[in-house]
């Protein structure tokens, strides 16, 4: 599909995302240009001519629940935090200390929804910090209804012969081992009706030649989800995942070795919808899976890819 072909209309920013580089940083939502959308859904007029945006309104699907999210300050995790707060949940979220600015804004949005927010600047590659996060959540909210394992990192490596094993280890620690640790500490506190939602990726299914290590972690997350779901089904705890396609979040421009030009047409060539997704467009799947709307879903991976066909 040519980048110059006419893109379908959309109320979200679709093409010509401005060149930008957040490389070497952990990535901030506040620096994205154009800004991403975490809170508004796209609607259409009856003629199918004019898309417009409208705020997501909760309807009590998670009323008085308590949710713990890793990487909840920005991107997809931010949108999940805000939507779940609008559905009635109090939220604890974990983030990297460098992302304080994003965390403050997300906290303010949770509070604006009338719910309580607890923010924890912790590096979850350390097992003791995963324990700290779960302990602090229980201390404040006294229950753990939903765990969202969402934090991740990725670094591009074009040639496997040059792959840096310390980066591979860090990627697995951040994306996979933290999920084991968070889940190990969380599960004993979760009751029948609780659920876990993990962030997988299109890369788990398609592979990605530049991200062999990251893609492998996402494959592990899909298998983790299916295996744990079978183990925990008798306990009434559902375990699912969402596999986003190309979503407009700080992960993209902050990725090490990702050239700023790559942002210019992000998602346009790859996705049949000819644009990157906005965080809210996949965050809704987390709400589905975590809430009673998803009561018959377990061991599932929902793909939100703008039409990119998954293999498997
Ligand atoms: N953006 C995409 O195109 C895309 C596509 C597929 C999957 N995903 C997945 O979605 C999830 C969310 O990513 P995003 O795109 O919203 O990017 P993001 O950069 O906004 O979120 C990543 C989060 O991970 C957190 N994090 C990273 N390392 C951490 C550490 N050591 N300790 C604590 N927190 C840490 C960061 O604080 C940040 O909040 C990730 O699992 C990612 O793999 C994203």
Automatic annotation (TrEMBL):
Region (Disordered): 1-32
Keyword tags: NADP, Oxidoreductase
One Pfam family linked to the record: adh_short_C2
PROSITE patterns per record: ADH_SHORT
GO molecular function annotation: oxidoreductase activity, acting on CH-OH group of donors
InterPro entries per the UniProt record, alphabetical: NAD(P)-bd_dom_sf (IPR036291), Sc_DH/Rdtase_CS (IPR020904), SDR_fam (IPR002347)
Family to which this protein belongs: Belongs to the short-chain dehydrogenases/reductases (SDR) family.
PANTHER family in the record: NADPH-DEPENDENT ALDEHYDE REDUCTASE 1, CHLOROPLASTIC, NADPH-DEPENDENT ALDEHYDE REDUCTASE-LIKE PROTEIN, CHLOROPLASTIC-RELATED
UniProt-recorded name of the protein: Uncharacterized protein
């Amino acid at each position: 599909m040519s980048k110059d072909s006419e893109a379908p209309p959309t109320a979200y920013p679709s093409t010509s995302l401005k060149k930008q580089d957040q490389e070497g940083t952990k990535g901030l939502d506040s620096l994205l240009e154009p800004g991403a959308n975490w809170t508004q859904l796209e609607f259409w007029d009856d003629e199918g001519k004019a898309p417009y945006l409208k705020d997501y309104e909760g309807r009590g699907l998670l009323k008085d629940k308590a949710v713990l999210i890793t990487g909840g300050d920005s991107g997809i995790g931010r949108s999940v935090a805000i939507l779940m707060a609008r559905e009635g949940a109090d939220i604890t979220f974990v983030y990297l200390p460098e992302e304080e600015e994003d965390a403050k804004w997300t906290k303010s949005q949770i509070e604006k929804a009338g719910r309580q927010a607890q923010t924890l600047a912790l590096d979850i590659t350390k097992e003791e910090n995963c324990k700290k996060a779960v302990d602090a959540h229980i201390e404040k909210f006294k229950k753990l209804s939903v765990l969202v394992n969402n934090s991740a990192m990725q670094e591009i490596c074009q040639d496997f012969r040059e792959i840096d094993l310390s980066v591979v280890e860090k990627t697995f620690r951040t994306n996979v081992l933290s999920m084991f640790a968070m889940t190990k500490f969380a599960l004993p506190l979760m009751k029948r009706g609780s659920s876990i939602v993990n962030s997988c990726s299109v890369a788990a299914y398609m592979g990605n030649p530049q991200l062999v290590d990251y893609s492998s972690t996402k494959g592990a997350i899909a298998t983790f989800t299916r295996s744990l779901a079978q183990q925990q089904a008798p306990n009434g705890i559902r375990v699912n995942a969402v596999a986003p396609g190309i979503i407009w979040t700080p992960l993209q421009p902050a990725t090490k070795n990702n050239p700023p030009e790559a942002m210019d047409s992000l998602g346009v060539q790859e996705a049949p919808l000819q644009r990157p997704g906005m965080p809210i467009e996949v965050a809704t799947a987390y709400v589905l899976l975590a809430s009673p709307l998803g009561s018959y879903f377990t061991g599932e991976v929902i793909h939100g890819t703008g039409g990119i066909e998954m293999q498997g």
